[in-house]
Every structure is written in structure tokens, then in C-alpha cells.
Amino acid sequence: MANYYDILGVSKNASASEIKAAYRKQALKWHPDRNKSSEATAKFKEVNKAFEVLTDPKKKEMYDQYGESAFERGGFGGAGPQNYQYREGPFTYTYTTSGGESPFEGFDFGGFSDPFEIFEQFFGFQSPFSGGHRRQQRREVYEINLTFDEAVHGVKKETVIKGDRKTIKIPAGVDSGTRIRFSEFDLQVRVKPHPYFKRERQDIYLEKEISYPLAVLGGVIEVPTIDNQVKLKVRSGTKSGTTVRLRGQGIPYPSSSRRGDQYVILKIKVPERVSSKEKKLLDELEKELS
Fold first, then answer.
1. What is d(CA 31, CA 24) in angstroms, rounded to the nearest whole number?
2. Cβ neighbours of residue 266 under 8 Å, at least 6 residues apart?
3. What is the pTM of this model?
4. 264: domain range?
5. In this structure, are 33 and 124 located in the same domain?
6. Which pLDDT tens digit goes with each residue over 210-266?
């Protein structure tokens, strides 16, 4: 099968405007309401898949690195993205996760969208051709705002949708952009940033300041994780920018017992002002080290 760049007829270095222009041409050419050939529907779906991937920076990055295997069930010998579904009360949840030691572990591709919906969003109207392609009714999408803690630990929310009060269970580990499919609607997640934790997929990054004497002599400090405080050993001679990995202290993967890691970046704190006594001690230390 031709790759996504060949499907649209663009180079790998094509600009966003070039990709959009190529999509316009190919989508109109292969739309089933206009093209009555037996291959039109399959070609139209391929064109829309290619457009959806190449116009999404994250998906494009993964495609450029791993190819179409990044988006197929069971890619890399069963290590690619997998769909998991279970029911919780009246709701059905569907998640896309990775298995084994896949290089895309924790990356939420969200599956592919309805090609006719992409077409309508791009052109701003339904099929411009006579007859109109029959398709399923578009699913309604609602947005929910979560705090950082709610997203990483999971939460139950009471909400009203179409006049009906519903209890919605959000699994631990979701992130901004995660889309949860219920039986009657989809839920788009938006997560508020944390004041000092920085998130990258399921991993957590934390900058921690330490004193110069501690960096030189070593010692033990306490650092926060998403669950509690843990003790961290600082080795003697630690340099500013040293990163320490706390395995398994990151964010859970949805519908999985696995967790990401936390990385603590040690920064040596340099005081803006020093007393005369401190200055004298630093001068003596400099002489000893020179």
C-alpha cells in the first residue's frame, strides 16, 4: 500500500498549505457521490486517513518514525495500539492503548475519524454532489474540564446531558485530548496544568532545588510525587541538571496496571546574597579546591 504522502501526492517536507491543497484535490476526486468506481470508497477513506495523520503534528511524528504500523491493531508483532472496551453501569468505555514494549506506549491515537465528517469540516458543508452520501448520524461530543489530580487518579462526575443526570466515571491516567466513548456520546477531556509537575504522556517531570553544600557532600531529600512524599538520595558531587528516575512513580496508563515514571531534575540553588561569614567560608572552600 502506498504511504500517506504518496496517497496525497505530496513530498515528506510538504507544508501545511500544500497538504490541504492536495487533500482538497484528492477528496473531491474520490468522493463516492461523485466517483462511481468500485474503488472510490476505499480510496476516499485512505485520502482522509492520510490527511488526518499528516495534519496532526503528533500523529505525523509517529508516522514518520514508525510508518502505518503505528496506527494498526497488533503492529510490531502485537505491540501496537489496542482498543479496550468495558461497561460501567449504563456507559460503554473505549480506550486506545499499547501492548508489550511498544515505542508508542501511552500515546493516544484516538483512532481515525469518520472520513465524511472530515470532508464536511474541511469544506464547511455536506457533500457538494447530487444525491448526498448516506452516513450515520454524527456523534455528539461534550467537553469536560478536570484538575490535574482528577486526571491522573480518576474521578466520578455528576453531569446533566440532554436533561438527564448521569454519573460519569473518568479512568485514571487521561490527558488533555483524550476522547472517551460512551454509548450515546463522546467526552473530550481538558486538563488544567499543575503548578510544578510537568507531564509528558504518562511520565512526570519535577525540578527540585538543592543547596550547594548538599550537592557537594550528598545527602537525602524529600520530593513530592503524585501520590505522596518520597525520600531521594543525592550523591556527593551532584551537578546541576542531574536527572534522577523514580521508576513507577508516574501516571497510570488507562485500563492498565502499568504506570509511567517520575523524573526529578536537580537544580543547585545559588543564593542572591551571602553574609560575610558565608563569603569567608566560600573563599576558604575555593582555596581548598583550587
1. 11
2. 208, 210, 215, 234, 238, 240, 241, 242, 243, 244
3. 0.51
4. 198-272
5. yes
6. 988 888 888 999 999 999 999 999 998 889 899 999 999 999 887 778 899 999 999
